[in-house]
Amino acid sequence: MHLTFDSEAATSTAISTTEQKPSDILKVSAQSRAGAVAGAIVSSVHCRARAEIHAIGPGAVNQAIKAVAIARPYLLLAGFEITFVPERIGVIIDDAECTVIRIVVEARPLAHLR
Predict the structure, then answer these.
(1) Alpha-carbon distance 100 to 15, whole Å?
(2) Hey, what CATH topology would domain 2-8+23-113 get?
């Protein structure tokens, strides 16, 4: 799968061939606060039972994984268990190919796990 990023925009907007709308994707940078991203993950899971996170670079991936770890106890209290799947995606940014780590977090009600 390839995504294209518009570098002229103040914030990058992903254009994807999947059903996921670009506005539903959480874009994480190395400077992102893991707690704030965790809150966005919890909100997304409550609304859609899933969250999609994109991160470029090791610092951004670190913040994204920390955010998933922070979000998990809050989702457990709300009755959800989560799983997540990381994936490498090739993207074009300013005419150069880059790799985005895509993390899809999915939630299931705890009752279904018993």
Answers:
(1) 13
(2) Translation Initiation Factor IF3 (3.30.110)
Residue 29's SS3 state is coil
Tokens of 63: 């913040």
Q: What is the pLDDT of residue 16?
A: 36
CB count in 10 Å sphere of residue 33: 12
CB of 55 closer than 8 Å to CB of 63: yes
Position 102 confidence tier, pLDDT thresholds 50, 70, 90: very high
Give the pLDDT mean for 95-108.
94
Handedness of CA 32, 60, 56, 50 (dihedral sign): negative
Residue 85 CA to residue 106 CA, distance in Å, equals 9
Spatial distance between the Cα atoms of 57 and 44, rounded to a whole number of angstroms: 23
